[in-house]
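Input record (one chain):
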Amino acid sequence: MEKIERPNDQMTPVERKDAIESGQEFDRFPCIPFMGEFKCQLSGISFREFWYDPEKMVETERLAFNRYGYDRIVIGPNTRGITEALGGRFVYPGKGLPYADQPFLKDYEQLKGMEAVQAESDSRIQIFAEVAKRLADAGRIVPLEMSIGGPFTIASNLRGVELLLRDTRKYPDRIMELLRIVTDSQKSCIDMAAEQGFGIAMADPVANPALIGPKMYERFVFPFTKELTDYALEKTGKKVSLHMCGTTYSIWKYLRQYELNELSLDNIIDLERAIEELGDAVPIAGNVDPVEIVMNGTREEIFEGVRRCIEIGKSAKKGYHLATGCDIPETTLPEKIDWFMEAARECGVRG
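The corresponding structure, as predicted from the sequence alone:
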């Protein structure tokens, strides 16, 4: 990665993070636009190449960071990579985002022969280990994380969302068996991240309580996510960055209990309420609308969206990170992210 001089930035992302964590003065609030497959625009590669070719993945990450200078780089394996390592399949169309193929887990008897992924020897996961090695030098400039997805979402990819939700009532013990295999696979990926000096990111969109309800979250999601966040801190020495999609108010009491570097919230969440009810427990990240404001907005609208979030977020007791409320759509014009980062540097300066 290049150390590029940028207006209003007196610190590198690593220097900024270290200052915040040690209670020192810092130049501006950290900014993390969630890029997803949008980054492929910059390198001109296909989504399949981005997910399977280490060299092109590294090239894409370097191009995106050198252009925008955001405050964290996150690589896979993500939910998709771990699902594939466990036997699931994704379709990579010529146009459009990858999507889950037919469910891998047809019958729970398959669990008898199913083992957790061993990251150090699994060919799918080793692609991301290679990416981590090639990006390791960037850690002197920008914090690095590996995303391990979320246990419930990985399970849903393997079984199918509708079947998994039905089975939480019909076969809850088998669901717990499946989640145990998934969680142990994620823990192996955490071990790999620790060896490379990476922190951990997680996102579990199917665990949205609007879909599964708070009681199911408590039973099937909370214990495994708590185990993973505790384990990540123990192994990497760094707290987890967690993103939760959807309307999550009913599970905030559980989110408060995780070991988090930040809790990133969907743009449909009332950020002011989140600061009031969660800001004393975990750092809050959010939550500029990635579609209506970033993709479809004018420069002025992007600046106003950023300014509003920072004005609300800066009162968070445990700290605030500017972020989009979810992934930026892959068809967004690249200059929109230029404006987003310009707004972050102008509006997020500490004063």
